[in-house]
Amino acid sequence: MLLALIAQRSTPTNLALAAAAPRGVEIRVLTPEQALEAVQPGDAVLGRLDVLESLDGVDDGLWALGSLAARGIQTMNRASALLAAHDKLLTARLLLRAGLPHPRTRLLTAGRPLPPLDGPVVVKPRFGSWGRDVVRCRDAKALSRHLRELEQRVWFRAHGALIQELIPPRGHDLRVVVAAGTVVGAISRIAAPGEWRTNVALGATRAAVNPPELACELALRAAAAAGAELLGVDLLPDGAGGYTVLELNGAVEFTAEYALGRDPFAAAAWELSRRALGCPQGPSGRMQPVFPPLPAEAAPLEA
Ligand SMILES: Nc1ncnc2c1ncn2[C@@H]1O[C@H](COP(=O)(O)OP(=O)(O)O)[C@@H](O)[C@H]1O
Ligand SMILES: [Mg+2]
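ok -> structure tokens follow
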């Protein structure tokens, strides 16, 4: 069986997944056009399209995922799942609907009045990544000042921006990687000195972590809510043992440091191959995961 990773770039994670294919499965990184040519009945595909460098949308190729799915090809990280993760407005709505904790989020559109959100807020692009243009505004004055700068941004004029309740930053977060309903890796990201954002692109460092059960459960639920088979789920700690699901990474990049007992690439390749071959395991296969109710402190916030 061929498992095609549909991507516009051969990222280190895509190459490591391809190298970790289990026996009997060939994993290849293909562009959307190449995948349409190469994929045959009985093969499977996984969408690995990322957001654009310009932050104003998603890599070209969602059309190919739709067209392969329509041909009856087993399609993982479908267009709907990638959009659920890449468009942070959609993420907020899906997490709210799933009853998962997420900061209150509003859409701010060019030329429209500011949505009401008290206290310090975070302003960010809908299709953001690498922490770029993620800005903290302490009060309404700082927010209106920032708005004037936003009007120069192409992504803002195209899609507006998100205004989000600020979860008090603790200098670190937790990223959990989920593959086909199984946690295959996790890392703690420690913000650079003087930096509140935890992106590695902004100087954060990675530290090994054994993710608590609650964090794994939230990550599995978030992946199920997005309908994604391979997803990175970023969790902000509340300092009292709880977490807020901050964002979903639909084209998550990870490293060998994410290992939880087994190599994270081998683990992900194995779980995704099992899913592609239709082998049910735990919450995988075609079964819908069934989770117990969340503890009361994780009650949903309005989005
Ligand atoms: N609402 C928020 N409350 C607290 N910290 C936030 C919030 N939004 C973003 N951050 C910080 O900024 C970083 C980047 O924001 P994020 O939404 O993940 O955008 P990106 O896709 O660019 O990584 C996060 O990892 C987190 O450290
Ligand atoms: Mg992020």
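DSSP finds nine helices and 13 strands in the chain.
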